[in-house]
Design brief:
Helix content is 50%, strand content 12%. By secondary structure, it is of the alpha+beta class.
Length: 598
Amino acid sequence: MAFFRSGRGDGLGAAARYRALEAARRPFLERAREAARLTIPSLCPPTEQRNADLPTPYQGVGARGVNALTNKLLLAQFPPNTPFFRLTVDEELLGAAEAASEQDLRGEVESALQRLERAVMSDIETGFARAGLHMALKLLIATGNALIHLPPEGGLRVFRLDRYVVRRGPSGAPEEILVQEETTLDALPKRTRTKLGAASRAGQQGDGASPQKLPLYTWIRRNGAGWSVAQEVGGVEVVESRGAYSEGGLDWLALRWSHVDGEDYGRGHVEEQIGDLKSLEGLMQAIVEGSAAASKLTILVNPAGQTDAEELAEAENGAIIDGLPGDVAMVQANKFNDFRVAFQTVEILTRRLSHAFLLHEAATRDASSVTAEEIRFMAAELEDALGGVYSVLAEELQRPLVEALLRRKIRAGAVPPMPAGLLKPLILTGLEALGRGQDFNRLTRFMSFLSMVGGVAASPAGGRLDASALILRGAAALGVDASGLLRPEGDVAADEAQAVGLQLLKELGPDALAAPGEPAGPAGVNISALDPEALSEAGAQMVQALAQASGDPESAAAAGEATDAADDSDAGSVQPTHAAPHAQAAPSSAKEPGAATH
């Protein structure tokens, strides 16, 4: 069996190599079993025996936290009916293809990529991929490790930590993976059954009971620039299982929740909270057992008294018997204060674990009135704590999963073979989604800030405020890129001047409206019929009329002097006869006093 060698010259078969790597896995497996015992014991049973009895925790916070965090991660990483990735093409290859064909291929390529994205998402939604991903995330949270296999057909296969071993290189990438399963003789190829011999076949027949289970080992190891894979059962290699993977084409994903340099296995989220979980488990066990003892009803009867214990025990409800009250007493634990201390500690531990597992009640303070904004802010703070986990899962789960599904499509003939490196999946959920959510939150806060600036500018103190500078400083403080959001000052001033001009044209009456065949300005106004000097005179007269209406003599006198000065400067010019009457009627219809100052 030339294949079954570890690459170190020791000549070990798959079974022996598996046992050799178990020593490095043992501390992580024991830790994972302890974490599962405090949360969901079935995720990593205490023994490898099938159908073994599982322990029952005294508290359910751990199980509820694992399930809640798993659901949150599944929805965040793989939202239903929404692509969690976007396929892009290498720009250099696309440019070379367009140059060779002398055509614009980008539109056709984008359309084909969208169809491919929908096809991949259909495999995830209609197959068993989502159920397998849910189990894999649950294993990662509780035990810190999970192994996923995406076979050529069917759904995902997920292996827990007690079913596989892995050896990683200095960079953290797997170098060797061995998986232990069970199979029967009938499920093996004919050639392998022949090699196993008559003794194994006799053992399989038995006495008519269920067939005997044989250990099946799958060995995946790096071989130069690729990967080789084969299986062994009963010390015999399954020749038909031999295969190879190219570099980057491995369909086995050894996942970790968090990793430490130099360690072959990861650490789970439950392990980070193991202290609180163990404390809560011990307190809840003491409270449950103490409550059971305190609830026991025991009656003491004085043996030297006049009350007959047997007659008291046999007496019906409401019966009258001979005796003295002092002869009878109830046994009481009198541990109320001790239980209250334990209950307070349990509440503190439960609250801390709820925060750690992003449970809903952790985002709400204990108060009679909690605003929706407070809940949103606190929930966002809790979810931001998983940013590092999102980055690990994006690199080790999401992107390899997309690439594996694309290879499955190519093998099935649904997608034509493509050059290596042509398609690049861009992950859109997880850490990237958190970043876009933060950008949206900043923009929302910036819009609220703009409304506050508008209110201050309209107040009496607004005259001393430079609104543009304040807006720019607010955008910088909130981390919002204001480029492209704020209009240039020249455009704003031009719009204000145009609005004032249109208001003056409205006051000048219908004589300024555009005549047929003449060039028209905004709102149908004949710009060629307007006289700038007449507009200036009309504006000055409107200021004077408004000042007189306000009852301010000084302002009226100043306005009159300005009007006389304007008349003196225009003495040599010919004034239209229709300008003055309309200007005199302007104060009665003016809406904004400030508009006439232009």
